[in-house]
Specification:
Elements: E1 14-17, H1 27-38, H2 43-55, H3 61-71, H4 78-98, H5 105-111, E2 117-125, H6 126-135, E3 144-148, H7 152-163, E4 170-174, H8 177-185, E5 190-193, E6 209-210
Parallel strand pairs: 1-2, 1-4, 2-3, 4-5, 5-6
Helix pairs in contact: 1-2, 1-4, 4-6, 7-8
Length: 216
Amino acid sequence: MFPPGKLLNVSERIIFWDFDGVIKDSVDIKTHAFVQLFQPYGPYVAERVLKHHEANGGMSRFDKLPLYLRWAGEEPTEDRVKELCEKFSKAVLQSVIDAPWVPGAQEYIRTNPHLQIFVLVSATPQEEIEKIIQALGLAGSFAAVFGAPTSKKEAIRLTLSRYKIPPHQCLMIGDAIADWDAAMANEVPFLLRRHGTNEKVFENYTGNSVEDFTAL
């Protein structure tokens, strides 16, 4: 754990933020939506979807849905995946906007006390995450917003290349293995936001972590 008051500081010039589970407590909303989509295929498929989603929180729905359709015995055609993506988006969009803030995140992002460069990197589709950020009044807080299909790894790489800032002067804040992997691939330090859903996934993680962002 970071000690109080030492969570984020001026030495970190770029902060990469994940969204679900880091800025908004919206992980369970998407978990429920995935399970509901595949409930008609029976409890075995629904349970398999649940376990996979919880273990792969930072993975795009564009990658998850074809896999889940195969588990359900369906061919993941482009039209079928698009149909499920639209159903998923309609089910979660407003609920994510209305979800509780992770304590301290909103205040830090809006005030940006160290004048850092904030970049949002999300597995949510680009158009959808932009709508969410606009609805929350956060568009002006981020220098860039990346959503699927751009991977988090590529988003970080592009940002580092644009600003010519060394990776060690940056920080990735995430709550999923995909976030950690993206940071490690770019040699960027990682801060884990712990919560009930990722407890088992990160049970052997020994790096820096927090439960919220109130001690800033």
